[in-house]
Predict the structure.
Amino acid sequence: MPNSLPISQAEKDRFLSDGYIRLDGVITEEELDWYRVRYDDLFSDESEIKQLGGRDEQGRAALPQILEPHRKIPELLELPYLKRLEGIAKFILGPEAEFKNDHMILKPAGHGAATPWHQDQAYHQPDSTYTNINFWLPLEGATVDGGSMHYVRGTHRGTIVPHRHLIVGDRQSAMVADHQNYWSMNGEALDCPVGSVLLHHSYCMHYAGPNLTDLPRRAYIAVFSTPPRPLERPFNLPWQTDPFWPDKE
Ligand SMILES: O=C(O)CCC(=O)C(=O)O
């Protein structure tokens, strides 16, 4: 892997203008192999898994997730891949950008469900504005049929739209933005070849399709951010305090 950052000025400008981008040649096969082994180890421990998408009619986990894998495997933070991401994050957001957290979302072969359209900002504390970049790495690459990501251009420059929980009353379940069809009509789907990574801004509206292939889609997501900027008037994000919102209205 060359020492120079795998991002050009033109790619940075496109990220700032669109709110998302694909970068190629960010991780080697050898590094991916390291992740693949740890990934499967973590998912073999049922007690670590959170259910982002509940279970399907056959009782299978639709969207299993591991939160903060670096707490289980601290070496993750020392890997050259994460150092590379840190360099990219600083290049885009400035020297204050640093690692914030990570998670893993598995879409099991053949039945991994869609991750609904949402903004990551819907999960964040309402008293601050966050500028985060999610680095979305599918360990064997991802096609659109295999559950790759979709984005709506320019949405990172807007505000937080209303959200609710995918499963009413279940705080573990995914956030779902209002008007899913509208976002689908305006979204762009991106393939992500092996070794590439997709980046999106925390206000960017995004979605990942169901996994229709016979291979699992194993995504490792690392988040980098600048310090949150406190707001004089906090947002009101009722779904954060009331998992039944807006069904009780
Ligand atoms: O991997 C997925 O299915 C969704 C990822 C996502 O929503 C994110 O990285 O913010």
Q: What stands out?
A: The chain has six helices and 15 strands. The first strand starts at residue 20 and ends at 23.
